[in-house]
Amino acid sequence: MNVVTRTLHMVTRFAPSPTGKLHLGHAWSALMAHDLARENGGQFRLRIEDIDATRSRMAHVEGILEDLCWIGLDWDGEVLFQSQRLPIYNAELDKLKAAGLVYPCFCTRADIAASLSAPHGADGPVYPGTCRQLHEADRTARLEGEAHAWRIDMAKAVALAGPLTWDDADAGTVIADPLAAGDVILARKDAPTSYHLAATLDDADMGVTHVVRGQDLFAATHVHRLLQALLDLPTPLYRHHRLLLGPDGKRLAKRHGGLALADLRADGVDPGQLVADLRRGVFPVGICVGNA
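Below the sequence we write its predicted structure tokens.
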């Protein structure tokens, strides 16, 4: 499928979390999203996914902006911060509550981990549905004094939405299978939203037409497609690119030392040459592209 089709004005985005330094994998992904928009006369937007208040740091936000400027990327419009959009997420969650599509979950991570037979999905072990079985009176009583998340009743939501598909530049037309993810969290105990809900709403509100992101988020797109249907949101075109792997054969992560853009900048690396190499698919020694 041609990723440039089905849009009058292209909008892409880069959406890092300010929980650490950007690395080469981030730069590669941001370049792909940026170049796709610029080559087609569109917009490239920047979003800071800072809903995790315990890990997000303003110093990392500043570092992200510095890193993107260092590799020559410019963005359109104001930077969007998820932490400033919490009332919007709450309002959309309320719609799902009113429709009876979400339920409060009081389980701890230890409770879920204890279910050793649970299959694994995109977010770890698939939730066994413990709190979905609670009687309404029990839920009401516990809501008053217990910390809780909000989970989607996936089977009920899928039955309501019906069959869904989405288009990927590499995989073609994909039949959505959100049931495989189980009853994912849409609002966490420590935050009034989750990645799934916030990212889906943000992409729609920002007018994003083409989502360029790593293959590690391919499974999440099944959930996002369902949320788009439930909340009457447009469905972008997607491209889930392969990931960069480090010398250990594992995908690059913020914990990898020496591969952060800030470290490369401090070492005197020429950003122009670095960007030219990344665009040609040439990477530092030890870095390679993972298999599809």
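Residues 1-5 have pLDDT under 50 and may be disordered.
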